[in-house]
Every structure is written in C-alpha cells, then in structure tokens.
Specification:
The protein is an alpha/beta fold. It has one domain: Rossmann fold (3-Layer(aba) Sandwich). It contains seven helices and twelve strands. The strands form three sheets. It has a six-stranded mixed sheet with strand order 7-8-9-4-10-11, sandwiched between helices. The protein is globular. The N and C termini lie far apart (44 Å).
C-alpha cells in the first residue's frame, strides 16, 4: 500500500432507488447482465476481513460503525454502496490499519491483527499492506514525491527493490497504464485525473493481490474512466470498490454490499448495465 508518510530522499526513485446504468452500444440485442451472488462460507480464510467492528470518531457522540463485518476473498470483485457518511471509507481505513476500532477484529488470512485480547502494533499490518493495495479517494493524500517516477517507484523500493529495479518496475507500470513518458513530470502539476491514475500506478507497482479503491472515478474524464475499467479487468481479479458511479460498478464488480445503519449488508438494489441500440448512431440524444 502506498501510504508512507516520510518523503524519500530526492534524486532517487523510492521507495437508494433501483437504477439502470445505461451503456449505449451500437449493435444488436438488449442483454441485461446482473451480478452473480457469492456465499461467504468458504473454508479458506479471507485475504482480509473485519469482524463486528465498532467505531466512533473522536468528539462524535454517534458511532459510524456498529458491528460491521466484511470479508474480501480471492477472486471477489465487490462494489460497496452507501450514502455519504455511512462509513464506507472508514471501513476501508480500519481494514488497512489506518484507523483502529473501539472493538472488533481485523484479520489477515485468518490471523487477528486487531482484537480485544492483543496489543496491536503498526508492524502487524505490513504483511496485509503488501498483499492489499489501497487507492485513496484523494490522490493528494497518496502522492508526495517531486516527480511521477519517484512516486511510482517508492513502494517497490520500500519493499526491498534496488533503485534500478524500482525504476524498471515503475516505468513498466506507467507504460502498462498508458502513461509512458510521465516519469519526469512534476506530480503536483498533474490534472486531477492524471493524479488519480498515477496513484493507481503507485499501488499496482507493488504487485498487490487485491485492491481497495475509494471513489476511483472522481476527476476522471470518460476516456480515462474507460481505460480504468480495462485496467481493472486485466490486472485486478480481486478488488473492493467504493463508488457512486453505478455504471462503473456494473462494469467492474460482480457482487454488491451496502453500509447501512453502521452495518454491512447484501445490497438489495444493485447496478447493472442496460445495453441497447440507437438508429441515430452517434447523433446526440437523451433519455426522458
């Protein structure tokens, strides 16, 4: 997870109502793909999980989460729904050890990292963060190096790669995402969408087994959003995505959960694509 708080030395790479998401396809037919359901009773422990989490922010009288549980298993592509302030982002921060609950457990492959019977150390989360990459909602919280190459190379270098190895991984990752030649660009001068994709490159450079993505389509133009859908299809077999973009979720997820009243539940209203034809082709039109 690219969440380091100490900048590396400069000069070297371092380390709801039911809704249809309308997909306008110029072709034939009207398929209505719907998500597949999964059960959470697999015998193998989940890659990461929270169990019966209770969390209240300091100074707040009301808890955000009240007994929330969630499991991320290999091969799952989960969309996490819920209104603003419901606790979706808080849940991911707890899962990654960036926040600590008042009660409940956080587990990595069945091993408790947080529980009421043990003292939690920051180092306990290192194995989980090596396997689960986290894309923050605000890219400025994730990018802190002077140049793009340094930001993308930071994770591999921090995980033990040599400067040459980290640079090679960073350049290959940028090329794979369509940002070859961006290495020398000054990070803080990038557009919002470019920052989002470079932050994703920084996460993917660490070759995680799963991704947590918090509102990944914020600041993306339609072309870059489509590119992100293709990247996730090709390189992210396991992920959990928070998004209010139902069309994006319909293309990238196959099961859906919702955070409601402080708990995680199976979503009763889920995104799906509605593919249909238009005889006017690319002529501007709208739906009443």
């Amino acid at each position: 997870m690219s969440t380091a708080t100490t900048p590396p030395n400069s000069g070297q790479p371092h380390n709801c109502a039911h809704a249809h998401a309308h997909d306008h396809a110029h072709g034939h037919g009207h398929p209505h793909p719907h998500p597949h359901s999964h059960s959470d009773d697999d015998a193998t422990p989940p890659l990461a999980a929270v169990q019966d989490i209770h969390f209240t922010y300091s100074g707040s009288a009301e808890p955000v989460l009240r007994g929330a549980s969630l499991a991320l298993r290999p091969g799952r592509r989960i969309g996490l729904l819920g209104h603003n302030g419901s606790g979706k982002s808080t849940l991911l921060h707890l899962l990654m050890g960036l926040l600590r609950p008042q009660s409940g457990r956080v587990l990595h492959r069945g091993v408790p990292l947080v529980s009421e019977t043990r003292k939690t150390r920051e180092a306990d989360f290192v194995p989980l963060r090596r396997e689960v990459g986290f894309l923050f909602q605000n890219s400025d919280d994730q990018l802190f190096c002077p140049t793009v190459l340094e930001d993308v190379a930071f994770g591999p270098l921090n995980h033990g790669a040599s400067p040459a190895e980290a640079r090679a991984v960073a350049e290959a990752t940028l090329e794979r995402l369509g940002f070859a030649g961006f290495g020398s660009r000054v990070t803080h001068r990038l557009s919002g969408g470019e920052k989002k994709m470079i932050a994703l490159a920084a996460v993917l450079a660490m070759q995680p087994q799963a991704l947590l993505l918090d509102e990944p389509t914020n600041d993306l133009d339609p072309h870059t959003r489509d590119r992100l859908i293709a990247i996730l299809a090709a390189h992210s077999p396991t992920h959990l995505i928070i998004s209010h973009d139902w069309d994006f979720l319909a293309h990238t997820c196959d099961s859906f959960l919702t955070v409601q009243d402080g708990a995680v539940r199976t979503a009763t209203h889920t995104p799906h694509t509605h593919v249909h034809t238009h005889t006017g082709g690319d002529v501007h039109h709208h739906h009443g």
